[in-house]
Amino acid sequence: MLQVDVRPPSPYRLRRGSDDRTLRVDRGVATRLLHVDGSPVLVRAWQPAADRVLLRAEPVDPAAVGKPLAAPAEDPPLASATQLEVAVERIRFALGVDDDLGEFHRRFRRDPLVGPLLRRMPSFRPKRRVWPWEALAGAIVGQLIEAERAVRIERRIVGRWGARLGEGRGALRDVPTATTIAGRAPAELTSMDLAPSRATALRRVACEVALGRCRIETAAADRRLLAMPQVGPWTVQCLALFGRGEMDSLPAGDLGYIKLVGRLAGIGRRATVAEVEEFYAPYEPYRGLVGALTLAGLHRVVAQGPPLRIAA
């Protein structure tokens, strides 16, 4: 077992669980099953005080984990001390406990838009994914569809092909790896309610990642991703913000931003992508952070108002 005591450098509050239900929070303890080089690890995080977060990683007996269909027949070895360290590092990233937002707060605390939101949500962080692959896969699934539908599809994929620890509704699941998705037929992915073109794109990208031809943990991979069919700027920007923690990456094509900026800027219609980018430009190098903050704090502005007409 490895336990780490972290002192967050900025106001912090342990977030709720993830939309795909792989990160569970029960009675103040966040729990996640993940795999490091194939070996299963159980990670927990809790906050005993406002200025402390404890993280614990422990190896899981591989024989106790239900394998997805595409998994190798042989069990992987028990997680090593090095793998436990990697697991803790990934959950620290996903939860954002090490983010120092002091300069961001000082710079924008008097901003008429951001200031009130910071006072109301001082511990806000974007909902990052544990691994870049999870962020990329989630972005491809969520292209051009409602957020609720995208969440349902992600849950189906996790339930069908994710490794499982435990039984019944309380079982913990891991996100299927790129190798697992690469081994699925497009028709299988389509049966999860993915559009055929999106299913093909997800499988194609999974193959590139699984074979090591696209190292998505660095921005150097973005050009290769953008050259693939069905992968556009919004997808890559989601990968950068939620999978690599790039605070300046703004998924400007998101329908939520298009509606929100249409309201905040007084346009009277849905904003264009260029207008969204122009609206958030003054917040560089925190455009992605400010975008996520405003979308979380002001979503009712869009939901409660009359429909906005489409941008010309």
CATH class of the largest domain: Mainly Alpha
What is the CATH superfamily label of the largest domain?
A: Hypothetical protein, domain 2
Order of helices and strands: EEEEEEHHHHHEEHHHHHHHHH
The CATH architecture name of the largest domain reads Orthogonal Bundle
Number of domains: 3
User: What structural category characterises the helix and strand content?
Assistant: alpha+beta
- The average pLDDT is 93
Kindly state the percentage of residues in helix.
40-55%
Q: How far is the N terminus from the C terminus?
A: 58 Å
The CATH topology of the largest domain comes to Endonuclease III, domain 1
Query: Low-confidence parts lasting 5 or more residues at pLDDT below 50?
Result: none
Strand coverage percent = 5-15%
| Total of DSSP H or I helical runs spanning 4+ residues | 14
Question: Which strands sit side by side, in order, in the main sheet?
Answer: 1-5-4-3-2
Model description:
The chain has 312 residues and is α+β, with helices and mostly antiparallel strands. It folds into 3 domains: 2-98, TATA-Binding Protein (2-Layer Sandwich); 100-123 and 247-312, Endonuclease Iii, domain 2 (Orthogonal Bundle), CATH 1.10.1670; 132-243, Endonuclease III, domain 1. The protein has 14 helices and 8 strands. It has helices spanning 81-95, 102-108, 114-120, 132-141, 147-161, 178-182, 186-190, 196-210, 222-226, 233-243, 255-264, 273-280, 287-297, 299-304, and strands spanning 2-6, 23-26, 29-36, 39-49, 52-59, 65-66, 164-165, 172-173. α11 packs across α12 (273-280). The chain is globular and about 60 Å long. The model has no long low-confidence stretch (mean pLDDT 93).
